[in-house]
Design goal:
- It catalyses: 2 H2O2 = O2 + 2 H2O.
- Decomposes hydrogen peroxide into water and oxygen; serves to protect cells from the toxic effects of hydrogen peroxide.
- InterPro entries: Catalase (IPR018028), Catalase_AS (IPR024708), Catalase_clade2 (IPR024712), Catalase_clade2_helical (IPR043156), Catalase_core (IPR011614), Catalase_haem_BS (IPR002226), Catalase_immune_responsive (IPR010582), Catalase_large_C (IPR041399).
- Pfam families: Catalase, Catalase-rel, Catalase_C.
- The protein is of the alpha+beta class.
- It folds into 3 domains: about 350 residues, Catalase core domain (Catalase HpII,  Chain A, domain 1), CATH 2.40.180; about 80 residues, Up-down Bundle (Hemocyanin, N-terminal domain); about 150 residues, Class I glutamine amidotransferase (GATase) domain (Rossmann fold, 3-Layer(aba) Sandwich), CATH 3.40.50.
- It is built from 18 helices and 20 strands.
- The longest helix is centred in the middle third of the chain and has 17 residues.
- The radius of gyration is 28 Å and the shape is globular.
- The relative contact order is 0.11.
């Protein structure tokens, strides 16, 4: 039996032998065997012109990439969606004819999907990664999709490299590890050999890559789009979502522990906030550049690896997004929603950003395989709120029952309907931009500065943020097994900042660079989370109680914190009730077994007279871990002994007093600050 089994296995192995291919050392070809002369740039009309459909290599490469996963999204697989509405603050009529941006107070229904990029659908929420922030506006003129990320730049400049960056950062194909992480050889090999990625990597190594909450995360449209008004005048525009709760992050040790304690941490946080009525709010900001100023900056405004510094191009707040309803069914809504940067309305148009140009092809191609054919627009979550009529028919999952026998244009049998609509009556017309140039596979010289803006980002960071970036490089690049790749990364980022590269070079056993560093001295305060809004509202506090606590003071404190919009959970040794010294009881929400310090924004420890050694040990763990993660810690009554035992009494963000009003005031301020980095810098 065993011999026969081995024979069969060998036979199968022999059958497969003809399909095994080692690509290393070979020439690059298309799937038809045609040798490829250029794989870095799409075919465009001139160096800054639009991408041409003639580029068969780009289309073959992108089509294959878009169809690599069934049915999970290739990227942004792990997502969480919610409903809401967008309200306009001021009319944008001067810049765009988009109707949903015309009248102050006008509200438009939306659907938003947040996501991680790299991990599979079952991966954890708190990994170091870019986050998606995609918004579908259901406008009276059709659906408009603002497909954004929580970082304003991207790894690459040309969409033809998108399959390459994703292949590099995904789990390595020979063992499908590591999951949802860039801390491995192929990702950093890509970075070192595609140095346009420097700016995005700086953001990825920063605290922005581990957001505390989707509710505390910015969104950026990344690309340069156009606003076009009724007169046909165009302005360049970038889009920003700015959270009203400020932009806040986890610390890396905490993020890793949360991935094990609650892999659904960010989606749970968003779901529970909406269920409680703590509706997340974001303001929509735009940066606008006149056409005449297209070349007025020391960077190319069409380069998706560059930001427009707010000091040069101010951010104008024009509206508010409110998320106020969870989905009824995750698959039907969140998983089947189909976003596409090409879903626009009159008044919003495209530019020759080469990454955007490729995305305009890729997204539809992806939906065809993910959602089973050309009728994905008929799935309820994707259907526009306005009627739609055309001559498209049949295909997988068709739901519309079209009447009549005419399904072509031009025709006389149906009076040539449905017919095109003139732009004066709301028909979409592409902005008439003059395009000329030789058919080339090249990129403009204006795209070739890869290090000035990463240096701007570095200059803009606070000291704690810089420390975290150094630590992130040390961890991520330290996981790389190939010593040559490690050294290449060190040498590359020496071009950004010599101090940064030297610091992590020492940690990973690489040779510190002898020279390097960008000469850029400017900074942009808007890039630092240190300068974000800081509010205590909606923060989650773990309250550690045991029998015999001072009920009167604790109840007064909890009521006062609740008025500030702060949420609390009672934590004790056992489920059920915990009884105060006067006999009053409070309901226990969690025990030391069912929850963990990393799941709270702050810890308030009261203790009680009924403590045993195990309670003392468990409570001590909560407090010391929160302190290690620079979180606010409050202590009253019996709880103050933990603060004293651990020598925390005079530390920043530690509030220990029995004066009820003083405690509430100072603890609220400490919670609003988010983290107390002074402890880290000691």
């Amino acid at each position: 039996m065993d011999d026969k089994q081995n024979i069969n296995e060998n036979s199968k192995d022999d059958q497969l032998e003809q399909y095994r291919v080692d690509d290393s050392g070979k020439d690059l070809t298309t799937n038809q065997g045609l040798k490829v002369s250029e794989d870095r740039f799409s075919l465009t009309a001139g160096e800054r012109g639009p991408t041409l459909m003639e580029d068969f290599h780009f289309r073959e490469k992108m089509t294959h990439f878009d169809h690599e996963r069934i049915p999970e999204r290739v990227v942004h697989a792990r997502g969480f969606g919610v409903h809401g509405e967008f309200e306009v603050y001021e009319s944008m009529k001067k810049y765009t004819k988009a109707k949903f941006l015309q009248e102050p107070g006008k509200k438009t229904p939306v659907f938003v999907r947040f996501s991680t990029v790299v991990g599979f659908r079952g991966s954890a929420d708190t990994v170091r990664d870019v986050r998606g922030f995609a918004t579908k506006f259901y406008t009276e003129e059709g659906n408009y999709d603002l497909v954004a990320n929580n970082m304003p730049v991207f790894f690459i400049q040309d969409a033809i490299k998108f399959p390459d960056i994703v292949h590099a950062i995904k789990p390595e194909p020979h063992n499908e590890m590591p999951q949802a992480s860039g801390a491995h050889d192929t990702f950093w090999d890509f970075v070192a050999n595609n140095q346009e990625s420097a700016h995005q990597v700086m953001w990825l190594m920063s605290d922005r890559a581990i957001p505390r909450s989707y509710r505390m995360m910015q969104g950026f449209g990344i690309h340069t789009f156009r606003f076009v008004n009724e007169q046909g005048k165009s302005h360049f525009v970038k889009f920003h979502w700015v959270p009203k709760l400020g932009v806040h992050s986890l610390v890396w040790d905490e993020a890793q522990k949360i991935a094990g304690k609650d892999p659904d941490y960010n989606r749970r946080d968003l779901y529970e906030a909406i269920e409680k009525g703590d509706y997340p709010e974001y303001e929509l900001g735009v940066q606008i550049i006149e056409e005449k100023d297209e070349f007025a900056f020391d960077f190319d405004i069409l380069d998706p690896t560059k930001i427009w510094p707010e000091e040069d191009v101010p951010l104008q707040i024009i509206g508010k997004l409110t998320l106020n309803k969870n989905v009824d069914n995750v698959f039907a809504e969140t998983e089947q929603v189909a976003f596409h940067p090409g879903h626009v309305v009159p008044g919003i148009d495209f530019t020759n950003d080469p990454l955007l140009q490729g995305r305009l092809f890729s997204y539809t191609d992806t939906q065809l395989i993910r959602l089973g054919g050309p009728n994905f627009h008929e799935i309820p979550i994707n259907r526009p709120v306005c009627p739609f009529h055309n001559n498209q028919r049949d295909g997988y999952h068709r739901q519309t029952i079209n009447q009549g026998k005419v399904a072509y244009h031009n025709n006389s049998l149906a009076a040539n309907t449905p017919d095109a609509v003139p732009k004066e009556k709301g028909g979409y017309e592409h902005y008439q931009e003059k395009v000329e140039g030789k058919k080339v596979q090249a990129r403009s010289e204006s795209f070739r500065d890869h290090f000035s803006q990463p240096k701007l980002f570095w200059n803009s960071m606070s000291e704690p943020e810089k420390m975290h970036i150094k630590q992130a490089f040390a961890f991520e690049v330290g996981k790389v097994k190939n010593k040559s790749v490690r050294q290449q990364v060190v040498d590359m980022f020496a071009n950004v900042d010599l101090e940064l590269a030297t610091a992590f070079a020492k940690d990973i056993g690489a040779e510190p660079p002898a020279k390097g560093g960008s000469t850029v001295t400017q900074s942009s305060p808007a890039l630092s989370q240190e300068n974000t809004a800081k509010v205590a509202m909606t923060r989650k506090v773990g309250v550690i109680l045991n029998n015999g606590f001072n009920h009167m003071d604790v109840k007064t404190i909890l009521d006062a914190l609740k008025k500030e919009g702060i949420h609390m959970e009672i934590i004790s040794a056992k489920q059920g009730k915990v009884t105060g010294a006067n006999g009053e009881q409070l309901t226990v929400d969690e025990t030391f077994t069912t929850t963990d310090s990393v799941l709270y924004d702050a810890i308030y420890i009261v203790g009680g007279s009924g403590e045993d050694k195990k309670f003392h040990k468990d409570a001590n763990k909560f407090v010391t871990e929160a302190f290690m993660h620079y979180k606010p810690i409050g202590a009253t009554h019996d709880g103050k002994k933990w603060i004293e035992e651990n020598d925390m009494m005079n530390s920043k963000g530690v509030i220990a007093t029995d004066n009820v009003q003083e405690f509430v005031d100072n603890f609220t301020i400490a919670i609003a600050a988010h983290r107390h980095w002074d402890r880290e810098l000691i």
